[in-house]
Write a structure and sequence with these properties.
The structure holds 2 protein chains of 2 kinds. By secondary structure, chain A is an alpha/beta fold. Chain A contains 13 helices and 8 strands. In chain A, helix 4 crosses helix 5, helix 5 packs antiparallel against helix 6 and helix 11 packs across helix 12. Chain A is globular and about 50 Å long. Classes of the chains: A alpha/beta, B alpha/beta.
Chain lengths: 246, 490
C-alpha cells in the first residue's frame, strides 16, 4: 500500500456546500487507510456546470484555478465521477477554446493524477476491503458520467461487496440515466421527471432501504423524488458507506 | 415565464423566410413545450417504450456477436472522416464515374434547387405520379410538397412512410417513421383510407402488411418514375446503394423506366471495398439484423436491366456549413441507422415530433441546428441530459454529447439568453475566489426564504414541482475543515 503521497481532496463545490458529510467521509476513510489528506482552501469548482451549459469562455478561469490549486499534489481525489469526468474530458477542450496552449499543457500534466474516489482506492491504494460495516439493504446506481466518461466501471461494486453486514441488491436497468443532467433538470423538467419516475420504480423494485451512488448531484435528484413520494428510501453517497464502521 | 428565466432560448418572432431544412408546416415550439405534451400521451409513451426497448435489446445482442465491433466502428469513423476532409474531390470523382456509366448528375445547393431538378425530370416524362423509396433527405427538402405543387403525386412505398402519408402525419423516427403508432391504430387507418381494403381486416401484422402490399403492388407495376435516396454513394465506381427490409426499394429501383435519386453529399464513400465496413455496421445498428433482406446497388444505366434513365441529385442544403465547424462536422459521418434514437432516454419519452425536426433524437439535436442555423433550432442542443448512451452505440463514433455541449456554447455566444449569461458570469466570479465562494455559501443558507416566492415564479419551480430539496447544512465542508483542522490546508 502506498503512503506518504501528497493527497489532496477535491471535494467539489456541490459537496462543499450541500453535502459536507460526504467530504468528511472521504477524509475519515483515507486517513483510516493511512493516507494524509490535504484540503487546499483555494479550491472552488471544476467548471462542469459552465461548460455543459455552454459557457466555456467563463469556465476558463475556473480551469486555470483548478490546475493552479492542485498541480503541487501527487494525487487529487474526488467523491464525484462527474466532476472527475469533466476534468479529464473537458478541461483540455476549454483550454483550446480560449487558445491557451500553456493551460492545455498544464491540464494534460495534472489530469492523470486526478482520481475519482473508487479509482484511488482500488487502483492506487490497491484495496477493495476498506474495513467498512453497513448493515443495510443497499442498491447502487452507476451515474452516467462515471460510467461513460470517467469509466469507473465496477470498482464501486467491488468495494461495496466487501462491506460487512451489507445486503447489496442489483438495480434493474442500472445504466439508464436518472434524468438529472445538470441544468437539464430545470430546462427540461418534465422529461427529467419522467426519467426520474422510471429510476424510482427500479429502486423501489429492489426493496432497498438505501440508494447509493458516486455522485451527489444525481442523488439529490433521485433522492428528491424518493422523498417527495414519501417512499421511505434514502440516498447515501458511496463514500459515506465506505467510511462507516458502525 | 419560468422557461425564459431558465435560459431556454425562445424562437425569434421575426422570421423572414422559412429556414432551410427545417420541418415545414407547423410552427416550431421549443422542445420543452412540445415534450410536455407528448409526455402526457399514454398511448405514445407505451408505443415508444415497447418499440425502442425491443430494438435496442436486439441490437445489443447482434453487436455482441462480433469480436471486432469496436474496430469496425473506428474503421467507419476513419473512412467517413477521410471523405469529409476531401469531400470536394470525392464528389467530383463520383460524378465522373457515374456519368461514365450513363447516369445524369445534378448539383443542388439547397432544397429549392434539388426540388426543381427532380420536378424537371418528372415533367419531361409527363408523369403525374411517382413511386418513392423512403428517403430522409427528400423529407428534408420537402420534395413531396414540391411535387404536389407541380401536379405530381408522390406515392410512399415504405410501409411506415405509407402509414404516415395516409394519415397526413409527420414521421417521428429515422428508421421506423410510424413508431408512434401501434397496430390497432394502423388497422383503423387502413380501413379508413385504402381503396378496396378488406372490411374484415384485423390488426395482425401479417394482415396489415398484406393490405399494404396489395395496394402498393398495383403502383409498382404501373408507375413510370421512381424516386429514391441512397445510403451510400461510391465515388470510385459511381454506384448508389440502398439497404432495406421490405422489398419496396427493390421494386422502385428496378421496375420504373426513370429513376431519380436524391443524395446528401455526405453519403459518399471512397471505394467499393469500403462497403464491407458499412454493410456490417448499418444493419446491426439499425434493424438489429446481421444483414438486411434487400441490398440494391446500381451503377448508371444497363440496357435491358433496370431503369433506362438514371438521375442523381447531389444535395448540399447546409451540409458544407456543418463541414466548416471543426467540432460539429462529425455529425456528417451519420449513416442514419437510428441506434442513437433507440437508446436515448429523452427520445423514448418525448418521441420524435417533440423535436420539430426532420431528424429527431440525438442526431437530430446536433444535425438540425447546424443545418438550419443554431438560432433556428436553439432548444434542441438542450434536449439532452448528456448521458452519453448515444455515443456508446453510434456505429461511426460520433461524440454526440461533445457536439451538444459545443452547440450550447454557440447558442450562448449567439443570441442565447442575457439573464442566464449574467447569472453564469456572476457564478464564475464567485468561483473565482475562495473568500467570495465561502461568502456565497453562507448566503445560500438564506435559500429557504425563497419559499416566500409563489411557486411558478420561483426560479426553482422546475425542480420543486416534482422533487423535494434537502435542508441546507448549517456548516459547509470548508468551514468544518477550518474549524477542525485549523485554518490552513493541512
Amino acid at each position: 500500500m502506498l503512503c506518504c503521497m501528497r493527497v489532496a481532496l477535491f471535494v467539489t463545490c456541490f459537496n462543499d456546500t450541500l453535502f459536507p458529510e460526504t467530504g468528511k467521509a472521504v477524509v475519515r476513510l483515507l486517513e483510516r487507510l493511512g493516507q494524509e489528506v490535504d484540503f487546499p482552501l483555494e479550491q472552488t469548482c471544476c467548471g462542469q456546470m459552465h461548460i455543459n451549459t455552454g459557457y466555456q469562455r467563463e469556465a476558463a478561469p475556473l480551469v486555470r484555478r483548478f490546475v493552479d490549486v492542485f498541480a503541487p499534489y501527487e494525487a487529487v481525489v474526488s467523491p464525484s465521477g462527474s466532476c472527475v469526468g469533466s476534468v479529464r474530458h473537458q478541461h483540455e477542450t476549454v483550454a483550446r477554446h480560449v487558445r491557451d496552449e500553456a493551460l492545455g499543457a498544464a491540464v494534460r500534466e495534472l489530469t492523470p493524477r486526478v482520481y475519482e474516489l473508487t479509482e484511488f482506492l482500488v487502483d492506487v491504494l490497491g484495496v477493495t476491503d476498506v474495513g467498512a460495516y453497513y448493515p443495510h439493504r443497499v442498491t447502487y446506481h452507476p451515474t452516467c458520467h462515471s460510467l461513460r466518461i470517467a469509466h469507473i466501471g465496477d470498482r464501486p461494486l467491488r468495494l461495496l461487496r466487501q462491506v460487512r453486514g451489507i445486503d447489496l441488491v442489483e438495480l434493474p436497468q442500472a445504466d439508464q440515466c436518472c434524468g438529472f443532467g445538470g441544468t437539464f433538470a430545470l430546462k427540461n423538467a418534465d422529461t427529467s421527471t419522467a426519467m426520474l419516475a422510471d429510476k424510482i420504480r427500479a429502486v423501489l423494485d429492489t426493496g432497498a432501504e438505501v440508494l447509493t451512488a458516486g455522485d451527489n448531484s444525481c442523488l439529490l435528484h433521485i433522492g428528491g423524488g424518493l422523498s417527495r413520494l414519501r417512499t421511505g428510501v434514502r440516498t447515501v453517497h458511496l463514500a459515506e458507506i465506505l467510511a462507516a464502521t458502525g | 415565464m419560468s422557461l425564459t428565466w431558465l435560459g431556454i432560448p425562445t424562437r425569434r418572432r421575426a422570421q423572414a423566410s422559412r429556414p432551410e431544412g427545417a420541418q415545414h408546416g407547423e410552427p416550431a415550439e421549443p422542445f420543452p413545450v412540445a415534450a410536455r405534451r407528448a409526455l402526457a400521451d399514454s398511448q405514445l409513451r407505451r408505443n415508444l417504450r415497447k418499440a425502442t426497448t425491443t430494438i435496442r435489446t436486439k441490437r445489443a445482442r447482434v453487436v455482441g456477436e462480433l469480436d471486432d465491433w469496436e474496430e469496425l466502428r473506428q474503421a467507419g469513423k476513419a473512412i467517413k472522416d477521410d471523405v469529409l476532409s476531401s469531400l470536394d474531390s470525392y464528389l467530383e470523382r463520383f460524378e465522373r464515374a457515374a456519368t461514365a456509366a450513363g447516369a445524369q448528375v445534378h448539383w443542388a445547393r439547397d432544397a429549392a434547387e434539388a426540388n426543381a431538378a427532380v420536378v424537371q425530370v418528372v415533367r419531361a416524362h409527363g408523369a403525374r405520379e411517382v413511386v418513392k423509396v423512403k428517403s430522409m433527405v427528400t423529407e428534408e427538402i420537402g420534395l413531396n410538397d414540391a411535387l404536389a405543387a407541380a401536379g405530381v403525386t408522390a406515392v410512399e412505398t415504405d410501409l411506415a412512410e405509407l402509414i404516415v402519408q395516409l394519415g397526413h402525419d409527420r414521421p417521428s423516427h429515422i428508421l421506423v417513421p410510424a413508431i408512434h403508432k401501434n397496430r390497432s391504430e394502423v388497422r383503423e387507418l387502413f380501413l379508413r383510407t385504402i381503396d378496396g381494403v378488406d372490411p374484415k381486416l384485423t390488426d395482425e401484422p401479417r394482415q396489415l402488411a398484406g393490405a399494404a402490399r396489395e395496394h402498393l403492388r398495383r403502383k409498382f407495376l404501373s408507375t413510370k418514375v421512381g424516386v429514391s435516396g441512397a445510403n451510400f454513394a461510391v465515388a470510385e465506381t459511381g454506384s448508389l446503394v440502398v439497404l432495406e427490409s421490405e422489398g419496396n426499394g427493390r421494386m422502385c429501383l428496378t421496375l420504373p423506366e426513370v429513376l431519380i435519386s436524391v443524395v446528401g453529399i455526405e453519403k459518399i464513400v471512397p471505394a467499393w471495398a469500403d462497403l464491407e465496413v458499412f454493410l456490417q455496421l448499418l444493419p446491426r445498428s439499425s434493424t438489429a439484423e446481421r444483414m438486411n433482406p434487400y441490398t440494391t446497388v446500381w451503377t448508371g444505366v444497363h440496357p435491358g436491366d433496370g431503369p433506362r434513365e438514371v438521375h442523381v441529385v447531389l444535395v448540399d442544403n447546409g451540409r458544407t456549413r456543418v463541414l466548416a465547424d471543426e467540432v460539429g462536422r462529425q455529425a456528417l459521418r451519420c449513416i442514419r441507422c437510428s441506434a442513437c434514437l433507440n437508446v436515448c432516454p429523452v427520445y423514448e419519452r418525448a418521441g420524435g415530433h417533440a423535436y420539430h425536426s426532420v431528424y429527431p433524437g440525438p442526431i437530430g439535436a446536433i444535425l438540425t441546428p447546424q443545418l438550419v442555423g443554431v438560432e433556428n433550432a436553439a432548444s434542441l442542443p438542450y434536449a439532452s441530459s448528456l448521458c452519453g448512451a448515444c455515443y456508446e452505440v453510434c456505429p461511426v463514433a460520433i461524440n454526440i454529447p461533445d457536439v451538444l455541449v459545443h452547440l450550447r456554447n454557440r447558442v450562448a455566444e449567439g443570441d442565447g439568453h442575457p439573464v442566464e449569461a449574467a447569472a453564469m458570469r456572476a457564478m464564475a466570479l464567485v468561483f473565482g475566489d475562495e473568500r467570495r465562494f465561502a461568502a456565497a455559501q453562507r448566503a445560500v443558507r438564506l435559500a429557504p426564504l425563497s419559499r416566500l416566492i409563489p411557486d411558478p415564479l420561483s426560479p426553482l419551480y422546475g425542480w420543486t414541482s416534482a422533487r423535494d430539496l434537502p435542508p441546507i447544512p448549517a456548516e459547509s465542508f470548508r468551514a468544518w475543515w477550518q474549524r477542525e483542522r485549523g485554518g490552513s490546508g493541512r
